[in-house]
Amino acid sequence: MSRGFVIWFTGLSGAGKSTLAERVGAELRAHGSHVEILDGDEVRTHLSKGLGFSKEDRDTNIRRIGYVARLVARSGGVAIAAAISPYREIRDEIRAQSPGFFEVYVRASLDELVRRDVKGLYKKALAGELANFTGVSDPYEPPLNPELVVDSELETVQQSTDRILGELARRRVIAGAAPTRLIEGEKLADARAEAAGLPRLDVGPREAADIYMLGSGALSPLDGFLTEADYRAVIENGRLAGGQPFTVPVTLRVNAAPQGDRVGLWREGVPIGVLDVAGGFAAPHRPEALTVYGTEEVAHPGVAALCASGSLALGGKVTALGRPPTSFPEQDLTPSQVRAVKEKRGWRTMVGFQTRNPVHRAHEYLQKVALELVDGLLLHPLVGETKSGDIPAEVRMRCYEALLEGYFPAERVLLATNPAWMRYAGPKEAVFHAIVRRNHGCTHFIVGRDHAGVGSYYDTYAAQRIFDQYTPEELGIEILRFENSFFCRRCGSLASTRTCPHPAEAHASLSGTRVRELLASGQELPAEFTRAEVADVLRAAYAEEAVV
């Protein structure tokens, strides 16, 4: 059972407690949580009918809300209470009795509350026409040490929501309902103009991808490039300094640190981000190579990329300025957009599938087996930078579209791009990929025998064994571990070593090298390996564009 908790919104009437409760509740539901909202007005109608507004009656009402909230949390759900709860002592009593109590003080000035009050209750109370009105003719005791203070007068609902979710993730109350630091729309031009006035740092395609992933919330609980304490913890323990699972360092490596506390991050003549510099530190290549990639051989593409970068790292929060250029505008969805589609389709569960290669029959088999267990599939191909020789993203996307059009129910699958760059870090990257999919709303993630591997650097199934180091609760996602699958000629179907009794000679399988050789020579790909529609896309691409 997952760990339940209580979010307790307190503040004066009209401050925005109920609005925030609904918005935060929707975000957490989209992320797979069971949420019950206990609104003060509704509770008074159904649970506390007949109670007045004396201190004793108010305390009784809050105790009843607290009791129901505890029951929800103890059963593994999320209880969100939105009640004025004016007295500090009774709130502290509820805190002491409730698992995972998270208090949010929703603040707004009296002038603003009067302005919002369409019923005119504040004006009547101020005129002495309304007794026992909290904040005017009855006391309100603000929290002394709430987990978070949000100001509904200065912040938008979305900004407050992002702050609440971010603080919940930072405190490890939730695993990944991710905050965003992504500026788009009307504010983008002004943000880029401001960034242009800061000290400038040009970045490469990998760093550009990380900036967008950080800004969009895809790498939550990270909100920026790793600081030294987090960096050391990640490479030594596979966790952040606060204990949250994280296995692949996300760093901004430079040869020399720029001046200033804020730095504009540029790519190809355009400011794409802003770094609030928290500090720089030495990050030698060798320890990271050995702990993340398991080798220091530069033949490994991840090690080669690492060794080509600087040995000084800059840490700090990142704001992304716009989205990266893309060839797939319909599939270029942020984590919050993916979670919104999930909620709209009514999926309680969603499995993520990572791929950097053209989809083939074994992939299709794993995806369909998973779809027997969950509500929806997020087909989430990586379209960032990959190693030389990999099929270009544009071709791979056409392959996915061809497969989905003919062989999957459209209402059960969502195709969206993952703009990350491929590190080829094997087991470490398997955990990294699971965290990214969790932040997109996945409740399950498929991991095969050689996830994110390259060459012979990683033991078979090491990408599955690494998950023994983390609980599903702390990861916030359940891992589906699949055996190697193949087409068995004697079974006459797709199978795996768990279901097929026949020897390897009966198994139809092709290496990536052999696939490219067949395509380059214009030969047919076996029907046991891939669907004809996918093979047609690949063959046309090789013939017309010479992709190899």
Write up what this structure looks like.
This protein has 548 residues and is α/β, with parallel strands linked by helices. The chain contains 20 helices and 20 strands. A hairpin with a 4-residue loop joins strand 18 (485-488) and strand 19. Helix 1 (17-30) packs across helix 13. The protein is globular. The relative contact order is 0.09.
Number of helices: 20
Mean pLDDT: 90
* Span of the ends, CA to CA: 49 Å
Low-confidence segments: none
Helix coverage percent of residues?
25-40%
Structural class: alpha/beta
Strand percentage lies at: 15-25%
Key traits:
20 helices; alpha/beta; 5-stranded parallel sheet; 7-stranded mixed sheet; 548 residues; single chain; globular
Give a brief rundown of this model.
By secondary structure, this protein is an alpha/beta fold. The protein contains 20 helices and 20 strands. The chain is globular, with a radius of gyration of 26 Å.
SSE layout and pairing:
Blueprint: E1 5-10, H1 17-30, E2 35-39, H2 40-46, H3 55-74, E3 78-82, H4 88-97, E4 101-107, H5 110-116, H6 121-126, E5 148-151, H7 157-170, E6 182-183, H8 188-196, E7 200-202, H9 205-216, E8 224-225, H10 228-237, E9 252-254, E10 262-267, E11 270-282, H11 285-293, H12 301-307, E12 312-321, H13 335-344, E13 350-355, H14 361-371, E14 376-381, H15 393-407, E15 413-415, H16 427-439, E16 444-447, H17 462-465, H18 472-475, E17 478-481, E18 485-488, E19 493-496, E20 507-508, H19 512-520, H20 532-545
Parallel strand pairs: 1-3, 1-4, 2-3, 4-5, 6-12, 7-10, 13-14, 13-16, 14-15, 16-17
Antiparallel strand pairs: 8-12, 9-12, 10-11, 11-12, 18-19, 18-20
Helix pairs in contact: 1-7, 1-13, 3-4, 11-12, 15-20
